[in-house]
């Protein structure tokens, strides 16, 4: 029984082996059927033109190679031949097409290293692969390659095979064959190549793109020296020759290749970067006759070019870069990498990292919202301030304009006006690591250092316009990230589609966070530092300016398109202090270029508004403005703060710093003393003059009454005895200054001037709406004479003042008043008879700038004084 069982087992094994052998044999037979004929090298060269198309079918550029000169082996430097053999196939003269020794060695190393990393293709196999087969990697192709390599070795000598190989191999930068490569990189024929030049070319064969001396000089040099060492080890050159060759600089000619078409920087990026994600590479683009369909929109590209030419047309002007991305898909629609590709091949859009300045602040804002901070939370805006952040030196921060600030300011307002101190306080509160994490989520790939200055755009290296456009497009897409791409589809020459882009959006930040960031960045354009970026449809964005005006940015988006604009000199260190008469900041040329581009690019795109926050994703809490705690009954200033519900702060406590203030007894006090007493208690006042038996100027009624508990800022109404039946002040007592805080500038000026006062004003950062009066000197209720100067404090950009009206005043008084407010005064004569008749002699009849004009502090005012 045992014998029969063993017999059956052996029969089964034999049957199985026979079946496997049959299948394997059939597979091999089918693989090697109809192998291509081994012909002369001129008959196997592939030189098909690749076409790259824009989204509308327009040809962007064509890629082809006439740059190939076939030469016999005796016209190729022997040093180059030895360099290639030393690095690509040491046993070239010993094997018969397939190097079994090398294969076994590679397998051993693969098993030892537990990875399939070792290659074992001979020069003959490489030639066969390049000359006769497409680039796909299959077992069948490998078998066909091996059979053909063996056949080639039977029919041709080693010298003939080496000649074929050296005339067909690709060396990068459009150079096929060693003769073309020698001319392209060194400007000499292949017969004259030196040791180091030969080693450089031989080293590039393995990876023409990765060892390209133009793109990766460090890697190319290391690879060159490796080949030199191999040549010395294998006896092709002496150690002394090797040492001398390695000591010589890697010298190549300036790059000559350029792309012809409607978007050269886009084509450059596509071939060198975007194509890698498709399974094809630069070599394939130049040799395979592909049809590459891209995302480029020719109309948007034209809009981008026209936009920068409108504002920076001179060759002496700074350089410009612009990248536009469809936020819904990640499709790159337009790219300006510089102003002239023929003069500057560096693609600033993708290869020129620059410091982003305040354009980086939205990433800190994102991190803050995800850390339970509300855009309505308040921060100290006074400048300068020094922050002590663990792990860092004391950090002193100034606001960009030198503005001292005005106490606390909401994060929302601090973003719109790009207040540095607010953002320094913010990063001190949440930590640098959270800012880095947020930037990474949004699409920033640059090297980011854990330094608090990152919140103001102080980066280790910088970011590219490409990265910034990508990150801002994530905001536009409600927090969904789409990796930017340029290739939609690739077809082979026979029409077969071998690649098609597939979108893979990822929700990287909460949609409610993206909504709030967008809501805040809209205010940058509507009334902040980016008003020149207005485009007449919903848009959001952020300005950025670096120290010394070396870089200026505007990055912004609509629901349909995101774009980043950078302006600066390509050396990165030249200040832009006088470009067409202005200092270039993000809110000027970059914002204007962005606006011009977006208006034209979106001309035929229906207007869309940004999506609302998902239902229930936001929550509102009333907080005390001073303590940022839950508002109590006696908190004087309370505001409603919005939070992303998911990140809402926990365990908020009720404000404990505001207690009820008892109203004092003011009856019998003079108006001045009563107001002083209220001011000391942080209470306000309103004054009403009424007839009374009480002494003139004395308080005889108050509301609320003595002892009433009120909160800070409560207005106490004071009834002042006028002592007259007609309620007019007695002669010499003056009149009370009305309370105009909270009014608009025009309303306040009208009321004060209607009461006979002169009015000037100074602007200061605040969280109140721009143009709102936030303070006045003297205060409301102060008794003074008509004609006195009242100074208003107005919410707005610091460093600006309002010109008072001095028409009708004498020359002396007008000059004195203007100079007391910091103006420089120029006096001119007005000899018009009608004005002399109207005002009399020595009186100001007109002024320039006119009253209520908004000018910089210290500006010149010219007054025209009547004279005969």
TrEMBL record:
PASTA domain sequence ranges: 659-722, 728-796, 798-867
Gene3D superfamilies on file: 3.30.10.20, Biosynthetic peptidoglycan transglycosylase-like, DD-peptidase/beta-lactamase superfamily
UniProt GO cellular component terms: outer membrane-bounded periplasmic space
GO biological process per UniProt: cell wall organization; peptidoglycan biosynthetic process; proteolysis; regulation of cell shape
Mitochondrion listed as a keyword: no
Reactions catalysed, as given in the entry: [GlcNAc-(1->4)-Mur2Ac(oyl-L-Ala-gamma-D-Glu-L-Lys-D-Ala-D-Ala)](n)-di-trans,octa-cis-undecaprenyl diphosphate + beta-D-GlcNAc-(1->4)-Mur2Ac(oyl-L-Ala-gamma-D-Glu-L-Lys-D-Ala-D-Ala)-di-trans,octa-cis-undecaprenyl diphosphate = [GlcNAc-(1->4)-Mur2Ac(oyl-L-Ala-gamma-D-Glu-L-Lys-D-Ala-D-Ala)](n+1)-di-trans,octa-cis-undecaprenyl diphosphate + di-trans,octa-cis-undecaprenyl diphosphate + H(+); Preferential cleavage: (Ac)2-L-Lys-D-Ala-|-D-Ala. Also transpeptidation of peptidyl-alanyl moieties that are N-acyl substituents of D-alanine
Region listing for Disordered, in residue ranges: 384-409
CDD domains: PASTA_pknB
Keywords linked to the UniProt accession: Carboxypeptidase, Cell shape, Cell wall biogenesis/degradation, Glycosyltransferase, Hydrolase, Multifunctional enzyme, Peptidoglycan synthesis, Protease, Transferase
GO MF, one annotated term: penicillin binding
PANTHER family noted in UniProt: BINDING PROTEIN TRANSPEPTIDASE, PUTATIVE-RELATED (PTHR32282), PEPTIDOGLYCAN GLYCOSYLTRANSFERASE (PTHR32282:SF33)
Family: In the N-terminal section; belongs to the glycosyltransferase 51 family. In the C-terminal section; belongs to the transpeptidase family.
Name of the protein described by the UniProt record: Penicillin-binding protein
